[in-house]
Amino acid sequence: MFPNSRRALLASLGLGAGAALLPRLASATLVRGMTLSELVGRSQHAVLGTPLDARCTYLTIGGRRMLVTETRLRVDGVLALETPAASELTVRTLGGRLDGAGELVHGQAQFEHGKQCAAFFERGPDGACWVTGMAQGHYPLEASGGSLILHASPQLPAIVDWEHSAVKRLDRTRLDEAERLIAEVNAR
Questions:
Q1: What is the C-alpha to C-alpha distance for residues 40 and 33, in angstroms, rounded to an integer?
Q2: pTM for the full model?
């Protein structure tokens, strides 16, 4: 009985040591941080908005069929830049769920129905709005002490050059201070 136990022990140790030497799978999303100047400069709109509803559809992007979520966003106010022509925007983000199929695209903004946010948008060739810099252009708002506070998007990936990023400057900032910073950058 001892030899079998010893063989089992040695086999287990050998397998364990071999597994430890194998490369491990890692997953992370890493994006280059956009400065506030880059975020404002690439955007056509910077608005306060409330997501009203969303639907998923397939679009062909770069020759590839992609699942896209289209969110109807009510414009509650304009932070800077061009005022949208309509009181509602159709905002597109990559990923979503449709007919039992799902597609997750890390780093995309995720709008929460009825939760007001500040967001930066650039227009696509068809006129639809896309969040500038993915989750870097989305800031859910939270009421605190009579002020609205911007928070980084919950789907924000790890950011390279965090210290100079727009997210670092805007996260946990009062709305009036964020408006001042954006207007200052836009005036340059």
A1: 13
A2: 0.82
Helix (H, G, I), strand (E, B) or coil at 77: strand
Give the Cα separation of 18 and 163 in Å (integer). 40
Read off the tokens for 10. Answer: 């040695």
Please state, in angstroms and rounded to a whole number, the distance separating the CA atoms of residues 155 and 126. Answer: 26
- Measured distance between the N- and C-terminal CA atoms of the chain, rounded to whole angstroms: 82
Neighbours of 186 (CB within 10 A): 16
Residue labelled with tokens 């930066």 = 120
Give domain 30-187's CATH architecture: Beta Barrel (2.40)
Task: Provide the pLDDT for residue 18.
Answer: 47
Domain ranges of the chain: 30-187
**Reduced to 3 states, what is the DSSP secondary structure of residue 106?**
coil
Mean pLDDT on 95-115? 91
> For tokens 């890493």, what's the residue?
30
Report the C-alpha gap between 28 and 60 in whole angstroms: 26
d(CA 119, CA 89): 11
The structure tokens listed for 155 are: 């789907």
pLDDT tens digits, 139-159: 999 999 999 999 999 989 899
pLDDT of residue 41: 96
